[in-house]
């Protein structure tokens, strides 16, 4: 369902492929339309906005004086925090300045982000519009009929997610009541993000998957060539957009150590080489 990926040019920009028969198209998946990757002029303009926003974000993580100044100018809370708090503060400043891209929740691919794109920090996923939450592993949207559908998930390693027995599959643990954390874990309930994943299974809708990957090579990162003053992630991990998956099965099970109930979701990567069907065809 995805057009051929463009190749990087010598100056770090992207060579533009032919655009014939691509402008304005959307993909259909089980009768529901969602955005696919279409390399139009608008796509490249949005991608440049992401590059600029990530460059500014990484600069703010280094230049705390500039961050504090912009917090005052945007009337944001300037409480001094470390770690993730600083990352959130920098992201919120850019949001107030209108630098975020793809701010509306959508099913399928988001504009100007390609499969394989890599990000230094978790908050960068929100800035690019790939995953609209700083901490939750499952993001979902509400339809007009009140039903919720999952738009994206992050496999960050906090839960017991397991690679599948077949290629391009893995089992994802439901949201909330993580038995690996907390003093007294409780049973998970089929609500919130877990309910949205269950609804995505029933309606056979695609879900964006972002993986946390360790021990990476910076030279292969698409969004890694940023302006001077930016700082890379020295923690030895990155977040990689892995593409669209479909929930093929879900079930409750009891954890052996704690005996608490968790929900498992089996996801399979969608074969993006299949022919696409466009609205009106």
CATH topology: PUA domain-like
Report the total helices.
Answer: 5
What percent strand?
Answer: 15-25%
Determine the fraction of residues in helical runs and give it as a percent range.
Answer: 10-25%
CATH-defined architecture:
Roll
Distance between the termini: 15 Å
Q: What is the residue-averaged pLDDT? A: 76
* CATH hierarchy class name: Mainly Beta
Looking at CATH, the homologous superfamily is SRA-YDG
The count of β-strands is 10
Our Rg estimate from Cα atoms comes to 19 Å
Total tally of structural domains: 1
Structural class: alpha+beta
SSE order, one letter for each helix or strand: EEHHHEHEEEEHEEE
Any idea what the shape is?
A: globular
Main sheet attributes: strand count, strand direction, barrel closure? 8 strands, mixed
Give unreliable regions as ranges.
Answer: 1-26, 225-231, 274-281
Identify the quaternary structure here: single chain
Record the SSE blueprint.
Blueprint: E1 27-29, E2 32-34, H1 41-62, H2 64-73, H3 84-96, E3 118-119, H4 123-128, E4 138-142, E5 148-155, E6 162-163, E7 169-173, H5 192-203, E8 206-214, E9 237-254, E10 261-269
Parallel strand pairs: 5-8
Antiparallel strand pairs: 1-2, 3-9, 4-5, 6-7, 7-10, 8-9, 9-10
Helix pairs in contact: 1-3
